[in-house]
């Protein structure tokens, strides 16, 4: 039956969203993390590692982790911040025949303030409809002083074969290359092809992207997030990742909506919204 139901997913509490035409998604309050998305009459489009940890303490490898208030190691906090291992609250569930929507919130608490001494409210809204997944992250400064943050929707896309995939839309944009000493370069190729590890932050991306793989295409669009992160560890890198099986690097590609190049500054009482939309084509 279409709608929203409470389930247990690998031991974690979760919501299963579904529509009358067969689209579905799973999101857990642990980390406010989307773990699955399958469009109408389609296969799973998010990568989730078979070795992912679901212990309620560790980051879950795959899906769409929320990075906040720090992206990667660009600061003094734990890698990617604390939101992806915090327990969020489900605040809204809504569905009709052709759509389903859920909203989760995370507010500051003694644990977050011990790491980052700022009052805040995060809100993640997930909506599915047909061949479309919409994710919206809102950050509110609920305190009395300004703060700055970096953030990302760390989207792990599932691909049939990475070496036969190509990502279009980044031509001409400047990027920081983490695998080559953080060198800043400009993308000269019409499409990215994948023959080695990649870890790049593309700056101020203003066009939608298109991922072509396995005879299908996925449109990727961001709004509010100025940057796009493209990451795959390749064979050597994945060998250092305990919660990823050997060879799994060929089945995934992270294309992340991010605010990483420059931090977002929020005055007291202000809010910021970033969105990522995936559409099957």
TrEMBL record:
EC number: 5.1.3.15
Record field: catalytic activity: alpha-D-glucose 6-phosphate = beta-D-glucose 6-phosphate
Enzymatic class: isomerase
Stored Gene3D superfamilies: 2.70.98.10
Record keywords: Isomerase
Pfam family, one: Aldose_epim
Signal peptide: none
Catalytic residue positions: 154, 256
Gene Ontology MF term list: carbohydrate binding; glucose-6-phosphate 1-epimerase activity
CDD domains for this protein: D-hex-6-P-epi_like
Annotated GO biological process: carbohydrate metabolic process
Any Gene Ontology CC annotation: cytoplasm
Family affiliation: Belongs to the glucose-6-phosphate 1-epimerase family.
Protein name, entry field: Putative glucose-6-phosphate 1-epimerase
Organism classification: Bacteria, Pseudomonadati, Pseudomonadota, Betaproteobacteria, Rhodocyclales
């Amino acid at each position: 039956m279409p709608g929203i139901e409470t389930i247990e997913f690998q031991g974690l509490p979760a919501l299963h969203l579904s529509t009358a035409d067969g689209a579905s998604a799973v999101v857990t309050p642990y980390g406010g993390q989307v773990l699955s998305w399958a469009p109408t009459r389609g296969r799973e489009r998010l990568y989730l590692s078979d070795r992912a940890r679901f212990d309620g303490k560790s980051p879950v490898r795959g899906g769409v982790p929320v990075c906040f208030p720090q992206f990667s190691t660009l600061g003094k906090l734990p890698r990617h911040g604390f939101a992806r291992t915090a327990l969020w609250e489900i605040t809204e569930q809504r569905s009709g025949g052709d759509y389903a929507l859920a909203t989760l919130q995370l507010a500051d608490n003694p644990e977050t303030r011990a790491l980052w001494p700022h009052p805040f409210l995060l809100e993640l809204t997930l909506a599915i409809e047909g061949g479309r997944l919409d994710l919206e992250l809102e950050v509110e400064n609920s305190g009395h002083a300004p703060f700055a943050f970096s953030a990302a929707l760390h989207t792990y896309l599932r691909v049939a074969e990475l070496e036969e995939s190509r990502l279009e839309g980044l031509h001409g944009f400047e990027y920081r290359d983490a695998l080559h000493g953080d060198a800043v370069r400009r993308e000269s190729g019409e499409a990215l092809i994948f023959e080695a590890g990649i870890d790049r932050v593309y700056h101020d991306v203003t066009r939608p992207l298109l991922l072509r793989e396995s005879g299908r295409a996925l449109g990727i669009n961001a709004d509010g997030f100025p940057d796009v992160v493209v990451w795959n560890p390749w064979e050597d890198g994945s060998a250092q990742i305990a919660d990823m099986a050997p060879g799994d690097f060929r089945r995934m590609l992270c294309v992340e909506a991010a605010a990483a190049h420059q931090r977002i500054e929020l005055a007291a009482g202000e809010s910021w919204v970033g969105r990522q939309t995936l559409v099957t084509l």
